[in-house]
Specification:
The chain is mainly alpha-helical. The protein has two helices and no strands.
Length: 78
Amino acid sequence: MEALLRPPALLFRDTSMNDEISSALTRINRALSRIEVATARPMAPAVDGRYERLRARTQAALAQLDTVIARATREDVR
């Protein structure tokens, strides 16, 4: 699977921050890969409701990450 989230070449001037972001994106990509594999399997009806709630929470968390990264990128450019 191709990585879904890729860090820009240089997001922050501080290279340790770039390394942390790159590491976080790597972990997120691995988690997304595991989720993809798990969703390919049929689910029992009881699990389906839990899955949908977890999916909604995951989407909300990713949206928050997008906001944080966008805000940090704008602040670093200044």
